[in-house]
Design a protein that fits this description.
Blueprint: E1 3-9, H1 13-23, E2 29-32, E3 46-48, E4 63-67, E5 69-74, E6 77-83, E7 90-93, H2 95-108, E8 112-114, E9 119-125, E10 128-133, E11 138-146, H3 154-157, E12 166-176, E13 185-189, E14 196-203, E15 206-213, H4 223-233, E16 242-250, E17 258-259, E18 262-264, H5 280-298, H6 306-332, H7 334-342, H8 347-355, H9 361-380
Parallel strand pairs: 1-2, 1-11, 2-8, 5-13, 11-18
Antiparallel strand pairs: 3-7, 4-7, 5-6, 9-10, 10-11, 12-15, 12-16, 13-14, 14-15, 17-18
Helix pairs in contact: 1-2, 1-5, 5-6, 6-7, 6-9
Bound molecules: flavin-adenine dinucleotide.
Length: 381
């Protein structure tokens, strides 16, 4: 058996990004994917254009719509629109297109791919990882990247990631036509989903419709009831949409994302934003950062992979710690949250800036704290 540098379990957004950056630096890399041809992937496909910074090639070919307006509503009324045209844009992509585009970039950089490779066993023997598929195939690697998404069992198995996983319950589907969804406008509806929100994202000649609930993963969503309310408001018949439910791992505290020769990326690392379910940006960010640290380690320029967990804490986790607090308060008291958190002048703009990657929850929290301190000092003087 030939020994490769890095085996990547999972060929989604995070795995293909990691694979591209390793293969592009000449590392012998192989993606192990159990199920490569999914016609439609369950995802809203909303993604900040800021992700472009992690790729030396353009992502434009897979962008279906550029969002310049974000419309928020409470129980389908009380609307507020944030104009993003002067800010960094927010893109809508078809997930299957994003993943296969990134996969092709990795393959063009000489990464290998083994399909129908359902990883069932991972073992480490004298610093070499031995990975076995359900059908008995085996591969050996110096390092392993766990990129197998929200249902990953390997994070717990290797005692990495948060001690307790937290999940959002979600549904996402596509609908042909545009209804009355305006060009370049993404919709977020906060009143009709308990402890969460529904969205409508236009993408070419279709609209992605979805919903997520964030506070209690055992709480199933009343999908049909919500579709019956939301779709007519968007100019569609509720029967027109077909979609899928999914449990999505969300960020649940700072944690160690690496061990010796092993890293977690994307949903397997529980990076998804617990307030807005943004998981693509951290998936691509973690893929990029994981490859950077792995390249260094394989070249003998660093002794371990600890830098990866540190970078992800600074660049993502610190913001998510605030995102989690905001989510817990907002979704517990959503009506008040909507009134004071979204309808306030500038607030809807700030949320749009979070989505477009221009601001973090941490930036916003610091601004609010500063404002409160300033008001306090002023009232004392
Ligand atoms: C309904 C919904 C809507 C969403 N909308 C958005 C959105 O609009 N914007 C946004 O930023 N994020 C969104 N997200 C989150 C985003 O989809 C995820 O964060 C992202 O898919 C994570 O990518 P990943 O590569 O880590 O995992 P995945 O995309 O899940 O990829 C994991 C891969 O691993 C493979 N795999 C699994 N097990 C094995 C195994 N044992 N052996 C080999 N291969 C395996 C799978 O087949 C899959 O290809 C949404 C999520 C959901 C559920």
């Amino acid at each position: 058996m030939t020994l490769i540098d890095v085996a990547i379990v999972g060929g989604g957004a995070s795995g293909t990004t990691t694979a591209f950056h390793l293969a592009n630096r000449g590392k012998k890399t192989c993606i192990l994917e159990k199920n490569i041809s999914t016609p439609i992937k369950t995802c809203g496909g909303g993604m900040s254009a800021a992700v472009q910074q992690w790729f030396p090639f353009t992502l434009q070919p897979i962008v279906d719509e550029v969002i310049t307006n974000v419309e928020f509503s409470w129980c389908l009324t009380d609307k507020v629109v944030a104009d993003l045209s002067e800010d960094s844009p927010f893109w809508i992509v078809k997930r299957e297109n994003l993943d296969s585009y990134l996969l092709n970039q990795a393959l063009n950089s000489s990464c290998n791919l083994l399909t129908a490779f359902n990883v069932v066993k991972i073992k480490k023997k004298s610093n070499i990882w031995e990975i076995t598929s359900l059908d008995g195939r085996q591969i050996e690697a110096k390092a392993i990247v766990i990129a197998d998404g929200s249902q990953s069992k390997w994070s717990d198995f290797f005692n990495l990631g948060p001690k307790k996983q937290n999940y959002a319950s979600t549904f996402s589907g596509r609908i042909r036509g545009r209804g009355n969804v305006l060009n370049g406008t993404a919709r977020f509806e906060f009143g009709i989903v308990k402890n969460g929100f529904a969205w409508a994202f236009p993408l070419g000649n279709e609209v992605n419709i979805g919903m997520g609930t964030f506070l209690d993963s055992k709480n199933s969503i009343s999908i049909n009831k919500i579709l019956n309310e939301f779709l007519p408001d968007l100019g569609f018949e509720p029967s027109e949409v077909t979609g899928q439910n999914a449990k999505l791992r969300i960020w649940n505290g700072h944690s160690n994302l690496n061990g010796e020769g092993i890293l977690l990326v994307g949903d397997a690392a529980s990076l998804c934003d617990p307030f807005l379910a943004e998981g693509l940006r951290p998936s691509l960010m973690s893929g990029f950062e994981a490859a950077k640290v792995l390249n260094c380690w394989l070249d003998g320029n660093t002794k371990n992979l600890d830098e990866y967990s540190k970078i992800m804490k600074t660049n993502w986790g610190n913001s998510m710690a605030w995102g989690k607090r905001i989510s817990q308060v907002f979704y517990r008291f959503p009506k008040t949250g909507y009134k004071y958190g979204i309808k306030r002048p500038t607030a809807s703009k700030r949320i749009s800036q979070i989505l477009s990657g221009q601001m973090s929850y941490e930036d916003i929290a610091k601004r609010v704290i500063k404002r409160l301190l300033f008001q306090n000092l002023k009232s004392q003087s």
